[in-house]
Design a protein that fits this description.
By secondary structure, this protein is of the alpha/beta class. It has a single domain, classed as Alpha/Beta hydrolase fold, catalytic domain (Rossmann fold), CATH 3.40.50.1820. It is built from eleven helices and seven strands. A seven-stranded mixed beta sheet has the order 1-3-2-4-5-6-7, with helices on both faces. Helix 3 links the parallel strand 4 and strand 5. The chain starts with 12 loop residues before the first strand and ends with a helix.
């Protein structure tokens, strides 16, 4: 399989589509499959899409020690190097959006544009999931029952309007079950998320930036998107009314069009 990174940690990555390069960074527990074909197929029309599994997740090598969001940004750079990309448009969602913030700060010369979706800056005025919602997820994961985990994730990550069509749950579980996340790695990812704080440095980001957030996001409240857009010079904010955390899954065509217009316009 394609790998990137140092000899002790292989990172799975693959590329599809054609056009300008777009590196796509997934969130906590997400794999390269979590983008979903409805969304990815829209982007493949205009972009050479590079997707990968974060360290310890999916087809990437197992990890046992702690890491930071900055470490994950270094991994993303390693994937870009392995793919032969000197520069690329970068899309990061949720934890991947935190990684993309660090990437834009670590290596500004490598980004053509930046899209940050449903993500969090850390620091004063930012917030993660409501404690009651977080408790539901923790309890589900502790159960060891995959269907319990998937149901909790489905209800918290997707809006009531989207979930009104119960047939969509089967598609969600098929995606999540195809490459289940290692729970030990998810705990390490959570530690990295809690330690994330770029708020005081966001004004240094130079890349043209789009911030996308659903107004019904329970995992990372939309006020975080508003805060990020206010702190990055020239950033544009798109709030998707009534849409949950996984906005690209709920509105794949609209999400892809927003990214396309922003990246190719940049």
């Amino acid at each position: 399989m394609p790998t990137a990174g140092d000899s002790g940690r292989a990172l799975f990555w693959e590329r599809t589509g054609s056009g300008e390069p777009l590196v796509m960074i997934q969130g906590m527990s997400g794999t390269h499959l979590t983008w979903g074909r409805p969304f990815l197929s829209q982007l493949e029309r205009d972009f050479d899409c590079v997707v990968f599994d974060n360290r310890g997740i999916g087809n990437s090598d197992v990890v046992t020690g702690p890491f930071t969001i900055a470490d994950l940004a270094t991994d993303a750079l390693a994937v870009m190097d392995a793919a032969g990309l000197e520069t690329a448009h970068v899309l990061g969602i949720s934890m991947g959006g935190m990684t993309a913030q660090e990437l834009a700060l670590q290596a500004p010369e490598r980004l053509r544009s930046l899209t940050l979706g449903c993500t969090y800056p850390g620091g004063e005025g930012s917030s993660l999931a409501d404690p009651a919602d977080a408790a539901v997820l923790v309890e589900a994961m502790a159960s060891g029952n995959l269907d319990t985990v998937f149901r909790a994730m489905y209800e918290i990550n997707l809006s009531p309007d989207f979930r009104a069509d119960e047939s969509r749950y089967a598609d969600f579980t098929a995606m999540a079950g195809a490459l289940p996340a290692r729970q030990a790695t998810v705990q390490l990812q959570l530690q990295a998320v809690v330690g994330h704080d770029t708020q005081e440095r966001l004004a240094q980001i130079e890349a043209p930036t789009l911030v996308v957030h659903g107004t019904a996001d329970r995992m990372i409240p939309p006020a975080n998107g508003e805060l990020i857009a206010a702190l990055i010079p020239g950033a544009r904010l798109e709030l998707l009314e009534g849409v949950g955390h996984m906005f690209w899954g709920e509105r794949p065509e609209l999400s892809a069009e927003l990214i396309r217009a922003h990246a190719l316009g940049a």
